[in-house]
Amino acid sequence: MSGHGDPIPMKSRKGGPLAGVAEVPGDKSISHRALILGALSVGRTEITGLLEGQDVLDTAKAMRAFGATVTRHGPGEWSVEGVGVGGFAEPADVIDCGNSGTGVRLIMGCMASSPISATFTGDASLRKRPMGRVTDPLALFGARAYGRAGGRLPMTIVGAAEPVPVSYTTPMASAQVKSAVLLAGLNAPGQTVVIEKVPTRDHTERMLKGFGAEITVEATPEGNRITLQGQPELTAQRVAVPRDPSSAAFPVCAALLVPGSDILVPGVSQNPTRNGLFLTLRDMGADIEFLNPREEGGEPVADLRVRYSELTGIDVAPERASSQIDEYPVLSVVAACARGTTVMRGVHELRVKESDRIDAMARGLEACGVRVEEDDDTLIVHGMGPGGVPGGATCATHIDHRIAMSFLILGLAAQAPIAVDDGSPIATSFPVFEELMAGLGAVIERG
Ligand SMILES: O=C(O)C1=C[C@@H](OP(=O)(O)O)[C@@H](O)[C@H](O)C1
Ligand SMILES: C=C(OP(=O)(O)O)C(=O)O
Fold first, then answer.
1. What are the tens digits of pLDDT across the range 352-371?
2. How far apart are CA 394 and CA 396, in angstroms?
3. What is the pTM of this model?
4. 87/115 same-domain check
5. What's the domain count of the chain?
6. In this structure, is residue 5 part of a structural domain?
7. Distance from the first to the final alpha carbon of the chain
8. Fewest Cβ atoms closer than 10 Å to its Cβ: which of 107, 228, 323, 369?
9. Is the preceding omega at residue 232 within 30 degrees of 0, hence cis?
10. Bridge partner list, 215
11. Residue 428: half-sphere exposure toward Cβ, Cα within 13 Å
């Protein structure tokens, strides 16, 4: 059974101001999709800036298991020789997606409309996460799923021998569910339609178009209506992966919280389905400048100049949730250091991430001396003002990279050091986190 290795205890503490340039790695969502669409294309896709985090490495391995040739040429430089839509081979062994919800759900989608079977598993975190949200729509194509109770991994998907196209309204705001349906739709004859009431990250739609699929997105009163023509020939592309806004969030928030800091975070994707955190931080009074806006790899990007700021708590509307869904853990750390109360509404989806992120943040913040309230869909943090968080606790990370990094950022601004029980999951999305933060002058240590 898949594990996640030995725990790596880590801690952080107050030091001098942060300064310098933080070149964060490639976007995780786009990296998964570049490998998957490369595998479903004809020809050789060349990728630069690929995130070499464990989540993405697990997807690369899975694409090989389905028959693609995936090669690493140098740091972030990869190529994929694809098998074409409908060309997936049946894997000879279990597909282990490690810690990655995106990996397992998107891969289930792209094999579910082929006449092959595959068994999926993951680490102890992924084995707790619900898969019914993708296997329900995949059943409409004709695929069958056999998993543990509650739709959990390990799970075998028996792909549809004669897939039919599907029209599906996603019941929750989830780019993973939307993407799984679109990827299954690739190998079904006719039009597959996905309607999403709330817009979510749109990398699958952008990249499918880039690889030559016929796909349209129409704003309707019910929400975005995405129509994909099945059985296209996807053509290999060059993909330049922009830097990950979800990773940029950590140095950005650290600079806002550590007095005297002034940093530059270049080339960060400003895709409007991903940039919610930066807008929310500005609403709280953050000094963030968006310099040199431009397009890179089909995504809008900017260089972020971030300076220490005294922040004020705000009411964060549920409409912001999907464009900053992975940033709530670090936002709640920022909220703890702001003056006044921050109310984060519409955040129920956080309960089914790598951990129950509402619970993990609430318990860790309380241990650090911060007053927190929560209900199923809301997290409220009573800010203690600049320099006001006592800290001095060890926080449990629950095999969740974003929880680990968030508490290590809080330790840089708290009165006493903060420890985390296990920083090893950081390597799933941000393998150079420690080096990058040290380069800015942050004191983050192992042990
Ligand atoms: O499609 C993607 O790449 C992702 C979608 C989001 O998950 P949901 O689809 O569950 O909201 C996000 O939390 C995850 O980190 C990446
Ligand atoms: C939720 C996340 O990832 P995934 O769902 O791919 O495991 C994340 O990276 O914060």
1. 999 999 999 999 999 999 99
2. 7
3. 0.98
4. yes
5. 2
6. no
7. 27
8. 369
9. no
10. 228
11. 29
